[in-house]
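2024-03-11 09:14:02 INFO worker-7 job=invfold-0412 stage=load source=structure_tokens
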């Protein structure tokens, strides 16, 4: 718009203002009628002072005075309406004139307004485009923040114990590397705080669950270890049963490593085989000696029979000498047989004395089983009382601990060494006998259940 146009518009405004200024010069308060109205209003207030209502009479007075005051107000308002009516009529006439005048410039104004509107529309579109771009920018930032939150919310919800520390580090790294959030940094901080609290709760839950799992595994492992150890002990007890008499420390053997146990078992098997071989030889020797003794007794019986026969046939007179000679002969044979029997009966004592003195025994004698050992075996076999399974296992350990523990003395003669070996074998026999009796008691109890 040019400077000249602006000046013309200013002149028009000034002319219009002069006309309005003339109308405004009318002094409404200076009118005579206005002064009368003012005096009437003051008189009305003086005639109707405020009344405090305390009873019905004062109530009626208060209503009357209020009505009088109201009439004073409404009368003035009616005057205003009257003035407004005259002014309206004046405005209508003035409006017709003004409309005619407006029709001169209005088409030009409308045309100019269209141009202004066109330009403003362009600017509005630009503004809207900028607003759209700004909105998209803000939405993009908010969306990135929401994506960050949703992503890590899902990660935390599916978090496992082994990735607790790693997840927290990755969350912090991504949070610190998010850029261009501009004025929405407070929103990102809020989301991060929310995720951190969610992570703490999840971490606590997973830690409790993991501790419970580890404890359960530990208990299960201990149970399995105990069961395996118990099973191994039962298997070893079953394997060691035939060899209890050769075991010095039963508990130690049960707790040996597999390799040491295998070696110990092989050693026990060899000891058992050696013992069985010794027992076999002993049985053969005893059988041989029994046969020899039986043969001697048979011969003695034959000699006795011949002696009796000869006695019957001898004459009282002529055959006494012959009979006496024969008697002497038979007496010598009898003495020899009797000497043999006495030597057999005193074998243990003689050999023991020879061992004590350290001299060479004249002849190796058969070592008879101790009466006390046989009696113990018989008394055990007569046991009728019920024995608990745990007590049977304890008795097996006790029987296994019976052994010859004295340091071997130095013996020179072979007979003494044989005698000492026989003592060891007798102890082994006692262990085997007690073990067999204990097995019989156990089997009898199991059949009776």
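2024-03-11 09:14:09 INFO worker-7 stage=emit residues=449
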């Amino acid at each position: 718009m040019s400077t000249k146009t602006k000046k013309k518009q200013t002149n028009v405004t000034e002319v219009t203002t002069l006309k309005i200024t003339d109308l405004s010069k009318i002094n409404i308060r200076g009118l005579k009628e206005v002064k009368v109205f003012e005096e009437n209003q003051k008189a009305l207030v003086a005639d109707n002072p405020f009344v405090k209502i305390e009873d019905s009479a004062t109530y009626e007075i208060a209503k009357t005075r209020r009505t009088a005051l109201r009439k004073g107000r409404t009368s003035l308002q009616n005057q205003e309406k009257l003035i407004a009516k005259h002014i309206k009529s004046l405005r209508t006439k003035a409006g017709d004139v003004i409309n005619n005048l407006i029709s001169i410039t209005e088409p030009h104004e409308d045309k100019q307004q269209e141009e202004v509107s066109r330009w403003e529309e362009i600017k509005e579109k630009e503004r809207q485009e900028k607003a759209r771009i700004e909105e998209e920018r803000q939405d993009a930032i908010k969306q990135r923040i929401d994506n960050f939150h949703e992503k890590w919310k899902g990660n935390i919800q599916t978090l496992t114990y082994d990735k607790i520390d790693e997840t927290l580090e990755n969350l912090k790294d991504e949070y610190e590397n998010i850029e261009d959030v501009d004025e929405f940094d407070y929103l990102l901080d809020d989301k991060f705080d929310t995720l951190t609290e969610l992570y703490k709760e999840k971490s606590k839950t997973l830690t409790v669950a993991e501790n419970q799992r580890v404890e359960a595994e530990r208990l299960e492992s201990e149970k399995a270890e105990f069961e395996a150890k118990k099973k191994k002990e039962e298997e070893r007890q079953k394997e060691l049963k035939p060899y209890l008499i050769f075991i010095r420390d039963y508990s130690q053997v049960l707790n040996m490593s597999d390799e040491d146990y295998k070696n110990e078992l092989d050693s026990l098997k060899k000891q058992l085989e050696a013992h069985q071989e010794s027992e076999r030889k002993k049985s053969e020797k005893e059988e041989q000696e029994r046969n020899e003794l039986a043969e001697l007794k048979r011969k003695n019986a034959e000699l006795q029979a011949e002696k009796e026969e000869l006695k019957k046939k001898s004459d009282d007179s002529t055959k006494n000498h012959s009979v006496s000679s024969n008697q002497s002969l038979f007496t010598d044979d009898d003495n020899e047989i009797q000497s043999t029997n006495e030597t057999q009966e005193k074998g243990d004592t003689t050999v023991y004395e020879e061992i004590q003195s350290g001299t060479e025994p004249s002849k190796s004698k058969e070592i008879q089983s101790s009466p006390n050992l046989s009696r113990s075996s018989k008394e055990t076999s007569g046991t009728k009382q019920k024995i608990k399974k745990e007590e049977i296992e304890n008795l097996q350990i006790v029987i296994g601990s019976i052994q010859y523990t004295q340091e071997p003395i130095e013996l020179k003669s072979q007979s003494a060494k044989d005698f000492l070996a026989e003592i060891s074998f007798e102890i082994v026999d006692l262990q085997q006998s007690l073990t067999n009796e204990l097995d019989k008691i156990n089997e009898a109890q199991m059949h009776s259940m």
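2024-03-11 09:14:09 INFO worker-7 stage=report msg="The chain is about 80% helix and 0% strand."
2024-03-11 09:14:10 INFO worker-7 job finished
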